[in-house]
Amino acid sequence: MTPLISVALSFIVCLAAAARGEPSASLGRRAVPKGFVTTRGAEFELDGSPFAFVGANSYWLPLLTSTEDVESTMREMHSAGVKVLRTWGFNAINASELAGAIESNLTYYQIWNNSDWTLNDGPQGLQRLDNVLEVASKYDIRVILAFSNNWVGYGGLELYIEHITPGASFHDVFYTNPQIQASYQRYVKTIVNRYKSSPTIFAWEMMNEARCLGDLPASAACSPGSGTLGRFYKDQSDFVRSLDPHHLITTGGEGHFYWKNPLFASDYNFNGQAGEDFDYDLTLPNIDFATYHMYPQTWYPQLDFPGSNFTVEGWGLFWMDAHANAAKKAAKPLVLEEFGVNGLDNKTTIYPSWIQLALDTKHGGVMPWQFGMLGLTEDGGNRLIKYADALIDGASPNDGFAIYKNQTVWNIFV
Ligand SMILES: *[C@@H]1O[C@H](CO)[C@@H](O)[C@H](O)[C@H]1NC(C)=O
Ligand SMILES: *[C@@H]1O[C@H](CO)[C@@H](O)[C@H](O)[C@H]1NC(C)=O
Ligand SMILES: *[C@@H]1O[C@H](CO)[C@@H](O)[C@H](O)[C@H]1NC(C)=O
Ligand SMILES: *[C@@H]1O[C@H](CO)[C@@H](O)[C@H](O)[C@H]1NC(C)=O
Ligand SMILES: *[C@@H]1O[C@H](CO)[C@@H](O)[C@H](O)[C@H]1NC(C)=O
Ligand SMILES: *[C@@H]1O[C@H](CO)[C@@H](O)[C@H](O)[C@H]1NC(C)=O
């Protein structure tokens, strides 16, 4: 991957120059009710004024059982300057997990049994999400809600696959099987109808990090150029638009490119193998803005080591520029909706230059992964949420990327 990148960089610089011409799409604006965020060309707009934001990722907020903790977290986000929160609009368990979930006061919205799921809209279910949205509204924070997860965490695609097509060997059956699509749409419809009149929803997101592969591998059919994910995004964004004329819709994708450039033939982020085609997906009429993610240390373990041509910071700047150019060409807003590096020193030295580039390239939003909260009261601060994401001494879960108020890098939110 790395040897090709320096060549690629000059290629990108040329593209950037070419893209500085007129944006190809029209600068139209969709009329929405007061208080709803919309887009105008490559900018977000709220009640006629440009709207840009620093946001927070917090998948764990709807999992809290203390409404007081939800309130204090949202108050902290507000005082840090957070205007948009991204969280999961899904949370599924299976029938054999139900007894344990009830006993431990776990949040769950869907219970899978045999080939179908039932909804939990009770106090341990969607009422917790209702509460998160209500409190968000009180603190003038808008919410991006994802409908499902490419990964198994909190009940993603693999639960649909296991229950509807048991024994299936490939992850991408999710995107093509009509019964799975119908089941996903039944859930999407439930969520959209529940909140579609609320200006607190910033946007609907089709999927967190959709790829051809997940915990199961990709089949040969979900190959670069197959358009599998593009068709999924098209069908599902059209479906959501048919239910809800006003809210913004986006993919939730990581921003993989399909550049068809031999220089990138072996680079997963650029060769289309992941399934995404960032440029194509942005041309879809009901994909209103672009999202991408950034974890260079995980993706390229050789960065920052002797002989490498890129630092972690430098590769990030390259990735950001590539997305800024593509979004500019499509004349749609761009959100860096997840990013992270490990280590407090790394965060403190690298994040400022990434944020500066986001400002310089007029990103519509920047959302670090992930918001850290101190002083939570829940169960003495030691309740195991799920998948080993514990609250320790009142601190929200830390996967190595959390940013807490006791750290100078917290200024990123401010
Ligand atoms: C379960 O969670 C609810 C909030 O959703 C809370 O009011 C209740 O006290 C919790 N119950 C227990 C036993 O922790
Ligand atoms: C339900 O989930 C549990 C724990 O995550 C797992 O061990 C079990 O195999 C699942 N059962 C079914 C029927 O999917
Ligand atoms: C799951 O389905 C089986 C068979 O239909 C039924 O006996 C069982 O009660 C169901 N479990 C739950 C939790 O709904
Ligand atoms: C760095 O770039 C040089 C010159 O293009 C190349 O020969 C070398 O293999 C690259 N090193 C790494 C680790 O990618
Ligand atoms: C900081 O980044 C470097 C380069 O990726 C990595 O080797 C190092 O482990 C990171 N530091 C911490 C504490 O994670
Ligand atoms: C800040 O709080 C976190 C979470 O409790 C803790 O792990 C960390 O040591 C504290 N201090 C600093 C400087 O990060």
UniProtKB/TrEMBL annotation:
Location(s) in or outside the cell: Secreted
UniProt EC number: 3.2.1.78
GO cellular component: extracellular region
Stretches that traverse the bilayer: none
Leader peptide range in chain numbering: 1-18
Domain Glycoside hydrolase family, first and last residues per copy: 35-342
PANTHER family associated with the record: MANNAN ENDO-1,4-BETA-MANNOSIDASE 1 (PTHR31451:SF39), PTHR31451
Protein family: Belongs to the glycosyl hydrolase 5 (cellulase A) family.
Protein name: mannan endo-1,4-beta-mannosidase
Source species: Mycena rosella (Pink bonnet)
